Amino acid sequence: MSTFGTLFRVTTYGESHCASVGAIIDGCPPGLPLAAQDVQVQLSRRRPGQSNLTTPRDEKDLVHLQSGIEHGVTLGTPIGLLVRNEDQRPKDYSETDLYPRPSHADWTYLEKYGVKASSGGGRSSARETIGRVAAGAIAEKYLKLAYGIEIVAFVSSVGKIDMPSAVSPPSQVPDDDDDTVEDALSPEFVELLKTVTREQVDAQPTRCPHAETSERMIKRILRAKEANDSIGGTVTCVIRGAPAGLGEPVFDKLEATLAHAMLSIPATKAFEIGSGFRGTRVPGSRHNDAFVRREGGGGLATRTNWSGGVQGGISNGEDIYFRVGFKSPATITQPQETAQYDGTPGTLAARGRHDPCVVPRAVPIVEAMAALVIMDQVLIQNARRAAVSLLPPITTLPPTMVKPTAPAAKAEGEEKH
Amino acid sequence: MSTFGTLFRVTTYGESHCASVGAIIDGCPPGLPLAAQDVQVQLSRRRPGQSNLTTPRDEKDLVHLQSGIEHGVTLGTPIGLLVRNEDQRPKDYSETDLYPRPSHADWTYLEKYGVKASSGGGRSSARETIGRVAAGAIAEKYLKLAYGIEIVAFVSSVGKIDMPSAVSPPSQVPDDDDDTVEDALSPEFVELLKTVTREQVDAQPTRCPHAETSERMIKRILRAKEANDSIGGTVTCVIRGAPAGLGEPVFDKLEATLAHAMLSIPATKAFEIGSGFRGTRVPGSRHNDAFVRREGGGGLATRTNWSGGVQGGISNGEDIYFRVGFKSPATITQPQETAQYDGTPGTLAARGRHDPCVVPRAVPIVEAMAALVIMDQVLIQNARRAAVSLLPPITTLPPTMVKPTAPAAKAEGEEKH
Amino acid sequence: MSTFGTLFRVTTYGESHCASVGAIIDGCPPGLPLAAQDVQVQLSRRRPGQSNLTTPRDEKDLVHLQSGIEHGVTLGTPIGLLVRNEDQRPKDYSETDLYPRPSHADWTYLEKYGVKASSGGGRSSARETIGRVAAGAIAEKYLKLAYGIEIVAFVSSVGKIDMPSAVSPPSQVPDDDDDTVEDALSPEFVELLKTVTREQVDAQPTRCPHAETSERMIKRILRAKEANDSIGGTVTCVIRGAPAGLGEPVFDKLEATLAHAMLSIPATKAFEIGSGFRGTRVPGSRHNDAFVRREGGGGLATRTNWSGGVQGGISNGEDIYFRVGFKSPATITQPQETAQYDGTPGTLAARGRHDPCVVPRAVPIVEAMAALVIMDQVLIQNARRAAVSLLPPITTLPPTMVKPTAPAAKAEGEEKH
Amino acid sequence: MSTFGTLFRVTTYGESHCASVGAIIDGCPPGLPLAAQDVQVQLSRRRPGQSNLTTPRDEKDLVHLQSGIEHGVTLGTPIGLLVRNEDQRPKDYSETDLYPRPSHADWTYLEKYGVKASSGGGRSSARETIGRVAAGAIAEKYLKLAYGIEIVAFVSSVGKIDMPSAVSPPSQVPDDDDDTVEDALSPEFVELLKTVTREQVDAQPTRCPHAETSERMIKRILRAKEANDSIGGTVTCVIRGAPAGLGEPVFDKLEATLAHAMLSIPATKAFEIGSGFRGTRVPGSRHNDAFVRREGGGGLATRTNWSGGVQGGISNGEDIYFRVGFKSPATITQPQETAQYDGTPGTLAARGRHDPCVVPRAVPIVEAMAALVIMDQVLIQNARRAAVSLLPPITTLPPTMVKPTAPAAKAEGEEKH
């Protein structure tokens, strides 16, 4: 359905060519300073027309906040918002009337609903993500203010061009049956995750913060554009500063809800957290993240972070990082041998205006979905912690069963009358 | 939380050392023939002690159905079931009392809840998956009977040992900036997906249906076992015969719910559907799945299936296949330099009985979670189709907006009184 | 939260003085003919200023449909809609700044959220119900078209003025300890439920379809108005033509979800279905609804209908009827001895423009919430029936366990590929 | 479905004659001292055979806790529990094979599911409530310990026999069109709500704490029993000590979720909170609850409490009280003229063992459902409050928009790493 989240909940509406797209954000904490600009920043990073790498449609995508805010402060009631579709009249798409676009959603929508929007992607259009990005920006504002959480996504590959540090060089991989192994990720990449900023990311038109790689990616994308073709890529995202304890065993583990969130973004096909698929090749003795005393504070840290900040489905206080794979855009403008809706074989030559590569614009969408997941999990875990804080201390359990640095923390909760 | 699904819903309980583990399955269609044996088959494939590759604990894992069934037929009411924990007394784990096991859930559970189970994995133990496997077996029974759906999972890699057909040989990958590309998967692998059976899978102790690879995997796992180490791997799963139209835009796309389901399985770190991460490297012109007329039936099929049976988040009637990455088990019996709960550095030498590699036993768990996702989506989509079938035919829309092979199918739904 | 429903789901936003109020309706069956006018009709019945019995604010309440519809037909995607708040500037309410209005939501909102809207009812305002009424109108359109379901609500009492037929005359009630009983409702009232129409209801400014009673109610309301006071009342609602089988045991029984829906309407305090509270006084032998063969069709009907169309939480095909109690509006313009937010005692004299009696305007709101409940339950039950229709006939159960008039009904559901 | 609650969630299974009935309670705060006896107390108050007023089946109803607890303390993981059905063999019910019992769930279950349990009530049996009562007892334990909340239900009427104080004498009700009014409830009754205890309630076999009325009720019930008939009644429940701020606008208002909970109990037909239906007859000027400074603490109290502790759907810190109507039990042992499943008219003479009046046994069920609602709302509101506590103080709003007695209360929430 079109709703995501349990306590912090976004519901979206809108197709590519209707009056507007929008969202209702329910469960936002009251008392949060919030202005349209907080939302607009991320919407503008998402919108088309930002460089010659993306689709030339110049949609303004101005957000109109409708409710839930007064004098720049949230009331705790639902925040309604919308962005008008300025280009409601379909024209460029008419050639596709007879043909479902290959690997696009035309045919499956028709199978599912029996009807479909007259043109463009309808509900499967990337315009649907506007509501998510807006909601995510609100969640981010809270997380930053309350926890200092930072969420930064960036392009880590385009086609076969990887950031040099993102993958261990294949030449270092020995014989398959050999136990000699390399780590799943390079030390440089893990280091980058600790410091990368949105400014660094936006400094490159590809949103790959490694300048040299970005140059190669630009060429790759332009080559696809010239060939009326498209190319995929990956986005890596890091969440810094999230508290330990997020994620709800057993079905709503943190990586499970992150994966759900990410694979709900159009054109995504793959998700991995921490060392991911490459980590499956590393023996446990080398892959395990040993514990060390956390510097300058209670609790434990880990020496390495192959787990991606999550163990047993629960955040452990380390950086949470993951990678999302976006397929090459299905809409290409070179002719394709395919079939019409009725099965008649033929050649489809789409026109329209399309992105040869979506990953640069996907960056704020990935950040938004990450923020929605963390926000919801924070609220759920806070409900538990507040409940626990009202109980008397546990005295009957063996010490090894009880958190050693129990929160001297005082009871929050409700005043009693 | 411990509930998964909307209309077909499983809720589980149980830790590794409590009285029993179990589940309530709500929303099972009434009138389904169902016996304990239907469930037991998959539980027995999941349980430890099946070969010398897995943990030697010999738990019988007999299922006890409690409700929701009479005379071997489901009533439509919740099915309660449980499996007793025969080995409730913890003993082997006491050494770990002072140490949270690295990359295990000990520390994060304590952070989250403030208390933890006295021993073993508690709720994070793989025993928790018993409820899922049981629920999945029930869903599978329905899907097989009603739709002829087949779900088969198998081990596609252990450590660095891949099924030869699973990955394009790296030598064929040309220069990174070159457009010359290979497909994401080999033709042999795609062919295998169309035919592989559980019998073929179970014929190998590794559950990798390729005999020669399986032999290499066995050696790899035994080498890990001898080294008191562990090794990860991947499980690939194919769902054959699922109807088109499954998956709920926009947040509950089929791949999103599959990813959620898979990454809720303990030790998973990665998910990809269809061509997955490798597909991001293939240009759209080569990656798109062109349409052809479906043989012997209405509608369309696709010539290739890089999409993994899902387009726009909705199944298209082709095989649905995906791959899940399982990390190397965290519990190893060689000494690890790490820290105690209170931060004191030291050496942990776990004993206990543990799997050096979990992927063979993970196969039925992956199948179960896949069945739960498909079952729920089938019910939700059927609700829509039944609703549509009661409406008069659409006459006011342009033909290109309406499904051409509209279901002559007659209205199901409700008798009217 | 601000979302209602499982498969047919409405989410609303908006306070009394923000830019707009609106809703997203998710899960509407595709292919439903739908125009703004379908929604506007019920919005106009809800809006203020319809007679001198209600508040004189003249808000146009024009609905703007945003998405989910093309060429007058629903697409199956979310329907976004909004109604602008024309009177956004608060002025009349300033006196209340220091005083929480007694029995209003001012104080509890502040307790809950820590902040509150600057004026008026904010989110607790009756304007919030606009989204519900719009959503309900869409549900109604479907239910009418697909099932012929009719939903009619009307005012059954204002203050102590009951429709004469609604309550057994108290004089007929014998001694408390006597078994001699009267029925819970009069035969005339039960008869009225079978035939009453919206036209009959709207013919009276009070929306009480009994003209003579309506006259008395008008006088009562005007007397309250002149006294700067207010008066409560009840709304009775009947749903005709709903199929048997709606309602989900055990927690989502049909009466439970109806009660939930009704008591979510502002100012409601009471709900009863069928014979309700009065039925608790009638012995089972007289209160039971005996079965008879259903005329002109399969299945059974009941001779009486004290159950209100629901048995065991499931609809039985008879008329579903229930009654909702609305308290006297809390906002009155006579002075009230009360306390300020800080506890200082004083006198509050509200001004503003307020309804002396809300029940006439509550009629379309009750109808809307009833439609939302039935619509959602219809979809859920259809999912089950469609699932069952794909199973082979049951042969192993004793005949008394199987529905005798089993739907020869043919399999709906999915085509198989 | 069979799940209730959002953060504190109970899922139940079981029919009257299967192996066991049980529940999974998910979301219980960790660290709560909990023993089987805490649950057993309420189960024993619910079970049949407690006096000659109820059914003579002597079921032990011993609870078996399965998981989620160690050393008498909850772990925060799901609590599985079950109660065996000792009397699984149906025998007394065979006469009903041909007849659906009037006003019972036999026919509607068959309509809904197409199959039904072979005998007894199946899932519609009151045995299903065992899981709820157990879950409620756990919630109550927490609420008592953390907030000092007390929940007490009692029988307020049987048939036409009301507690004398429960209803204003009808003789005091003047002419219908007269404004002269009495209050909705007597002062004595409102006083009773402040002090009534479970001990006082259990001192009477009817669970009506007014001894004289109880005597009359006993006679009434025995007269029904002798006549092979049945009689209904009402249960009133008060929740003392709940904090202000519970209840989620707009659809999950506190009274809405309470009504949902109560009308999900078998045999219920009516719900009213505070002054309820009678309050609709009292003008606003008399019905409004004026504010006064709360004694010995911050915030406001109300002079009267016609609202039943809820305003705008949110608790205000006053006693929450409501009344639930239970119909006369449908199963009676005198002959009834009705029809068989196939429509054939005839006479049904049920045998079996049945309660002539269910309200005494319903008391702990009402308490349990009340506890489940309050528990869930407490957790949800705590999530919000904890979130707010981490935000900086609001400085930009007019003082009248901000809670004056802002919680100096310090931030709970998460430690930051």
UniProtKB/TrEMBL annotation, chains A, B, C, D:
Cellular component terms per the entry's GO annotation: cytosol
Subunit structure: Homotetramer.
First-tier enzyme category under EC: lyase
Listed Pfam families: Chorismate_synt (PF01264)
Pathway named in the protein's UniProt entry: Metabolic intermediate biosynthesis; chorismate biosynthesis; chorismate from D-erythrose 4-phosphate and phosphoenolpyruvate: step 7/7
Molecular function in Gene Ontology: chorismate synthase activity; FMN binding
Keywords noted in UniProt: Amino-acid biosynthesis, Aromatic amino acid biosynthesis, Lyase
Cofactor dependency: FMNH2
GO-annotated biological processes: amino acid biosynthetic process; aromatic amino acid family biosynthetic process; chorismate biosynthetic process
Protein name, per record: Chorismate synthase
InterPro entries named among the record's database cross-references: Chorismate_synth, Chorismate_synth_AroC_sf, Chorismate_synthase_CS
Record PROSITE patterns: CHORISMATE_SYNTHASE_1 (PS00787), CHORISMATE_SYNTHASE_2 (PS00788), CHORISMATE_SYNTHASE_3 (PS00789)
EC number: 4.2.3.5
Family per record: Belongs to the chorismate synthase family.
HAMAP family named among the record's database cross-references: Chorismate_synth
Source species: Trametes cubensis
